[in-house]
Amino acid sequence: MSQLLVLGERALREAKRTPDALLPTLLIPLFFLVVNVGQAAKIFPSGSTPFLEGQNYAAFQLPSALLLAASFGTSALYLVEEIENGYFDKLRAAPVSRTALALGRLSSEAVKSIGMTTVIVLLALPFGITMATGPLGFVLLVVLTAGWAVGYSAFLQFIAMKTRSAAATNSASLVFFPLLFLTPNFVPRDLLTRPMEIAATLNPVTYVMEAMRSLILEDFNWTVIGRGFLVVVVFVALMLAINVQTMRRYD
Amino acid sequence: MVVTVEAEQLVKTFESRAETVEAVRGVDLQVTSGEIFGFLGPNGAGKSTTVRMLTTLTTITSGRARVAGVDVTADPDETRRRIGVALQEAGLDPRQTGRELLTLQARLFGSSRSAALERAGELLELVDLVDAGDRLIRGYSGGMKRRLDLASALVHEPEVLFLDEPTTGLDPVSRLVVWEEVRRINELGTTVFLTTQYLEEADQLCDRLAIIDGGLIVQEGTPAQLKADLKLRRGIDGEPTLDDVFLDVTGRTRERVAGEVQEVHG
Question: What domains, with CATH codes, occur in chain B?
């Protein structure tokens, strides 16, 4: 446990010292939020759009921005850099548990995501967005987003260990975009065309997004929230297991 | 005489879809406690792969290795506790300070925060980096990075220190400084396993050495023994150098090496 803390602390120090890498992960999702709302808000006025539950369209779009912010996984690129410069071998040559090695950076991703989600939600509040589920809902929203951030970073970290290539890791991070566009990103699932509805139903990101949206727009809908958490828990468990296994077999 | 590093028929094979490469083809080695052992060989001979196997960084395809009395494959974590490693690239995190890096390394070896900080201070002093200790490593010169890398391999006072080409790319002054550090570390009782491409370095530092070529040990002995043996075998009039020994056992000639160099630059 102490090794995990030490390695997580180092990864956070690294993030603090590279604000130029952290800033785009905040600004790009905010940019998408502003642009998407600017393009579609007039089509969905809050008074006459039932799925907005009395809020404005930005509240509906907020989960997309949060998921995007949680899916950059910059720490995987630092890992590739470490593999290339030999520091990763230095860590591997120490009697560090392979689990701690795999999870060290990921724990810092959770902390970064908690900070990032809080900042984005706070920035959204002046624009009329409220948390329908109150402070507890906010905490659940932060935890859910951080969970997704850990899972997706673990996926990128796995790619980094397998390919040892910055280009391949960078390319893998783009996988999130088709996943995001195959969700009920602009309208609820029942308003999508049939093929898109099928694609969205098959896409696990949909359930995370719907859970986040539910926390922002509705009172506690535990079925929807539970489904989102279940997806994140399964995704994180799977990715962590793959990471630890890859770390143990790294040659 | 205690054997600290022992390899028996060590083999490493790398397999890809396209080919199978036998990088190390059956290496036998014995390094005794307290010596500086030199491991020489041309590029691609299997030096680094052998070191990576002995330091648990690469799995052993077949054969057996024991370091500081511990079977490397059976108990890699115990092996790691007993060895220090400074690899070919000075493996450092450029976004940390020298002190932070050493403290982190000490904590990974089980020291408390305060003990780790104290140890970091001692090591910065040992490698003469006290003034630069709180600067980010990205601003260090090549020589400073090498010295810090050496220090980080010593945080837990290892029984055996593996140094993989520790002076490659360093200017002559920095190289001499690293030599001094290696001697000092050895005098404190640490066995040193050193790979190098610089024969002068091996001659200056090593008590005994082995030459590997094509994944096999082709010669082993003290520098003086190897030179005397060559003089006797070839009937050389003058005193042969370690360069002559190296060229002789690896089947290379000065002309061929010069030709290879010309081709690269041509």
Answer: 3-221 (3.40.50.300), 223-266 (no CATH)
